[in-house]
Amino acid sequence: MAKARNMKTSTFTTNPPSPFFHLLPVTPLTTLLFSPKTNRLRHPKLCSKHPLTLSIFYLSLLFSFTFLGISILTLIPSFHDFVPCSTPSPTSSFSPSFLASLSSTVSFNNEDDQPRLSTSAMVPFPAHGAVGNVSEAEREFWQQPNGEGYEPCLDFSLGYRKLSARISKEKRRFLVVVASGGLNQQRNQIVDAVVLARILEAALVVPTLQVNLIWGDESEFSDIFDVAHFKKTLQADVRVVSSLPSTHLMSRQTIENKIPHEVTPQWIHTRFFNQLKREGLLVLKGLDSKLSKNLPPDLQKLRCKVAFHALRFASPVQELGNLLAKRMWIEGPYIALHLRLEKDVWVRTGCLTGLGPEYDDIITKIRESQPEYLTGRVNMSYIQRRLAGLCPLNALEIARFLKALGAPSSARIYSAGGEAFGDSRALQPLVAEFPNLVTKEMLARDGELSPYMNKSSALAAIDYIVSLSSDVFVPSHGGNMGRAMQGHRAYVGHRKFIKPNKRAMLPHFEDASIGDAEFGSIMKELHRKSQGQPEPRGYRRNRDLRREGLLVLKGLDSKLSENLPPDLQKLRCKVHGYTAQEVRHLGSDKGDAG
Predict the structure, then answer these.
(1) Would you say 515 and 368 are in contact if contact means Cβ atoms under 8 Å apart?
(2) CA–CA separation, 571 vs 577, rounded Å?
(3) What stretch of H or E contains 431?
(4) Cβ-contact 101, 12 below 8 angstroms
(5) How far is CA 283 from the centre of its chain?
């Protein structure tokens, strides 16, 4: 995202100059083509003998070179039709005309069939805002955050665009990626797969989606995403192919699935480039959260390009999602809740459902029979987990939270997510406070969802589309859907996104002495600065260290990369007790400093 330096209004329809124009060298030809009219020929005597003949000669020469130059430039594909960095008023949200310019229907040039990024992003319907005679609390609830002048910016650097000409035509090195998990976890891995292919200068085979063992979904990439759009949108960044060429089918297929977390591009390049160059094929598996969240600017922009432009859903899924979103949007503002009340969520988190001993016993038995599903912190009790913010908010807690923030009881709520464990009983406290709660099953008409009844990824994609167009999005628990929605809503104009600060707010839920008015004030204050407005990037650990002045780390065995910059490698050797001479000797041995 880029922040405007001046505040003159512009739009995404501005056509930037050709990226090749500033690359033209200063030569006699360019001097002839672009010199001012006041220039004079150096030898007037030469011209005085046959002025008419020489004039015709120079005009013919000028015309010939101009025609040749235009012909050459038209034969060379442009690197990027990038989204220019426009500069809106810092106090305004994106206008409907701006959102229309980012239409979810990508446009292509008739001549070269190139996708235009300025019209390819998946965007929501415009936000409604508070309308009619509403209270101040309701008006504040529906109000969109201040974007502070930040807008999408995909102006890749000159160096990146120069490398694109070679990387986008790669035919010897191929990267195969197997993406696992649910839809949004797979989306994250596909985004990183493209970035990894770019780092390794390899062609990317359309990612394989691993069969989801929890939901039994056997969907392939083409069932969920638009493959042709994916390829065309990224053709200037990496070469994407549908399958391996026959020359690589018998290549050695070493599956790499033990990649540390938060690795850098340098680590990836050092670890895999020579292997990929030697074998021609690299298969990666288990990429979730393995690539660093803080990449160089060009690679961060590539992430945005993949996530918000290239990964468009397959047409049948996209059209149905848009249809359901329109049915919600046309009746006014609405809230999208990502309720994490599914059976597998309670099993994995180690939390109680809040539905009573009968339901909790069912979850406990499943958890005991399948302990591998329990995620981390196994030594914590339920109470400790809950107060640490590790448990999903149940329907009663969500209802009280929304009411405290000023949501009117008449608010229309779209419930995203799978089937709640406990069915209608699990949702009853929320419906009692907010009766206008609907699901995709309630919105859809006869037969519309039938093709996707056993396709959890397609159903999650429909939830994603409807949630994106909501005026307010609230996740009841952390997860890939919430993070993906937070990033996407920021990218398309900082749509309101309220992430419950469970660790800070749950103690107030337990305090019976607090009245409704005071409870509402506390909830609003706790969440005043986390409603979708721009936030500074940075490592969480770095922020904790600056704030507390102390950071305790445990379990560091083999967690730091073996491929550090030279100075840090030498420091490592120094700690081990090597002498300066030994360090120099180690550093000269194939570039390895110990």
Answers:
(1) no
(2) 10
(3) helix 424-433
(4) yes
(5) 23
Alpha carbon distance, N-terminus to C-terminus of the chain = 39
Find the angle CA(554)-CA(557)-CA(563) to the nearest 5 degrees.
Answer: 120
Of 114, 390, 380, the C-alpha closest to 237 is 114
pLDDT for position 415: 95
Q: What CA–CA distances, in Å, run from 432 to 104, 396, 512? A: 36, 9, 21
* Predicted local distance difference test score (pLDDT) of residue 116: 56
Instruction: Please state the pTM of the whole predicted model.
Output: 0.75
Using CA atoms of 408, 411, 414, 415 in order, give the dihedral in degrees to the nearest 10: 40
Cα 365 to Cα 353, 377, 503: the distances in Å are: 14, 19, 27
Is the CB of residue 260 less than 8 Å from the CB of residue 290?
A: yes
Given a cut of 90, whether residue 318 has pLDDT beyond it is: yes
- 367 pLDDT exceeds 60? yes
Residue 319's Cβ-count burial label (10 Å; 0-12, 13-18, 19+) is exposed
The pLDDT value given to residue 203: 97
- Taking 3-state DSSP, the helix, strand and coil percentages for the chain, each rounded to the nearest 5, stand at 45, 10, 45
- Asked if residue 568 has pLDDT above 50, the reply is yes
Q: Tokens in use for 494?
A: 């900082």
H/E stretch holding 467 reads helix 456-468
Distance from C-alpha of 470 to C-alpha of 144, rounded to nearest angstrom: 11
* Confidence at residue 178, expressed as pLDDT on a 0 to 100 scale: 94
Q: Is the per-residue pLDDT at 228 higher than 90?
A: yes
What is the rounded distance in angstroms from the CA atom of residue 165 to the CA atom of residue 151? Answer: 27
Range with lowest mean pLDDT among 8-22, 236-250, 449-463: 8-22
Contacts of 30 (CB under 8 A, 6+ apart): 24
Three-state DSSP class for 150? strand
In the three-class reduction of DSSP (H, G, I as helix; E, B as strand; rest coil), residue 283 is classed as strand
* 8 Å CB contact between 464 and 485: yes
CA dihedral 293, 92, 527, 85 (to 10 degrees): 10
* Residue of 118, 123, 109, 125 lying closest to 86 (CA atoms): 118
Name the residue among 306, 308, 314, 309 with its Cα closest to residue 193: 306
| DSSP string across 38-78 | T---S-HHHHHHSHHHHHHHHHHHHHHHHHHHHHHHHHSPP
CA separation for the pair 173, 162 (Å, rounded): 19
Query: In DSSP terms, which residues pair with 179 in a beta bridge?
Result: 209
Residue 441: partners with Cβ closer than 8 Å, 6 or more residues away: 449
What is the maximum alpha-carbon separation in the chain?
Answer: 109
pLDDT at 230 over 90: yes
Which residues does 320 contact at the CB level (< 8 Å), separation at least 6? Answer: 444, 448, 449, 462
Residue 204 bridge partners (DSSP): 175, 240
d(CA 459, CA 440): 9
